[in-house]
Amino acid sequence: MRELLEKIVAEGEVVTDGVLKVDRFLNHQVDPHLMKRIGEEFAAKFHCERPTKVLTLESSGISPALMAAYELGVPLVVARKRRPLTMTREVYRAEVYSFTKKETNEIIVSRPLLDSSDRVLIIDDFLANGQAALGMVEVVHQAGADVVGIGIVIEKAFQDGGRLLRSRGFRVVSLARIGSLTDGVIRFHEGVMNG
Amino acid sequence: MRELLEKIVAEGEVVTDGVLKVDRFLNHQVDPHLMKRIGEEFAAKFHCERPTKVLTLESSGISPALMAAYELGVPLVVARKRRPLTMTREVYRAEVYSFTKKETNEIIVSRPLLDSSDRVLIIDDFLANGQAALGMVEVVHQAGADVVGIGIVIEKAFQDGGRLLRSRGFRVVSLARIGSLTDGVIRFHEGVMNG
């Protein structure tokens, strides 16, 4: 998605070889018109799968996911993050390990919000190691529902998540794929856009 | 906003005399079309104030605030919550006391995202004691910027926040005002809608 790639080049900031900061338009500050375009793009890619729900993880997945849900005309479900607590029976839950923070957190969805008739489109802002997406997949499967696709705004294609999810048969659509961030330069998977 | 009041009556759940659960359409599950309508309503109420930014607090303020920012054509800034850490100079920060959780948390906004030329519209999903809104006001004032208004989806008018904010001269627009939740019945400030 060219508009997104241009925004990443113009306003993204390479923090380390592994970390791209997009605080200016995707998470801390959000560009609502870009989110709308991203929502339209996800809707165009996935509407044939007839999703009944969009699922994302708080909080930075919410903006692109809300716009995708709006375009698709279906509810958005926001999985909640929290540290492991006492087991209760009213929620679906999965553990998600963060390689960045080196800690395990739980993601939780209230049972009444997903059931076996649902066809779920998972949306997230970033795909790195794929752990968050796999946690959401697990929650969907606990509900007996189907994952009809995974939409990612920015995939770090130099990390394992994309390969892992695709090898398990999921259709993953990433609107931008970063090939590397070496030497402070953002190289997209399809080629170099700046240097 | 009638559509919102009807949704609260149809899908809201009174948990205690003080707690209204709106997990079905406002936070855990989100109705994107209702959010769009809410965004339009906030834009209609506040566009004359010429806001340059919308500010909200993660994570349940994001959905209505994103739609308001979209309609107003301005960026959304999402203040982050976290527990106090080492002081840094690159952020605005305020402490917010939660009466529900009986704990103080910090809210943080990166300095480059707000400056003294900004006219900020604060949006949040709930207004109860007003502590979150006051924390956001403090962050805006640290930036030397102006608060041009406060837009709330659901105000618990039986708690002190609305009175507190209005007494300090802020223009507060609440799309639904709950007068009481006594005996499991949702009474709106303007009268009874169910019973």
Automatic annotation (TrEMBL), chains A, B:
Residues 34-157 form the Phosphoribosyltransferase domain. Keywords: Cytoplasm, Glycosyltransferase, Purine salvage, Transferase. It catalyses: XMP + diphosphate = xanthine + 5-phospho-alpha-D-ribose 1-diphosphate. Pathway: Purine metabolism; XMP biosynthesis via salvage pathway; XMP from xanthine: step 1/1. InterPro entries: PRTase-like, PRTase_dom, Pur/Pyrimidine_PRTase, Xanthine_PRibTrfase. It is an enzyme of class 2 (transferase). GO terms for molecular function: glycosyltransferase activity. Pfam families: Pribosyltran. CDD domains: PRTases_typeI (cd06223). The keyword Thylakoid does not apply. It is found in: Cytoplasm. Its main location: cytoplasm. 5-phospho-alpha-D-ribose 1-diphosphate binds at residues 128-132. Xanthine binds at residues 20, 27, 156. Its EC number is 2.4.2.22. It comes from the Bacteria. Homodimer. Converts the preformed base xanthine, a product of nucleic acid breakdown, to xanthosine 5'-monophosphate (XMP), so it can be reused for RNA or DNA synthesis. Belongs to the purine/pyrimidine phosphoribosyltransferase family. Xpt subfamily. This is Xanthine phosphoribosyltransferase. It comes from Geobacillus uzenensis. The gene is xpt.
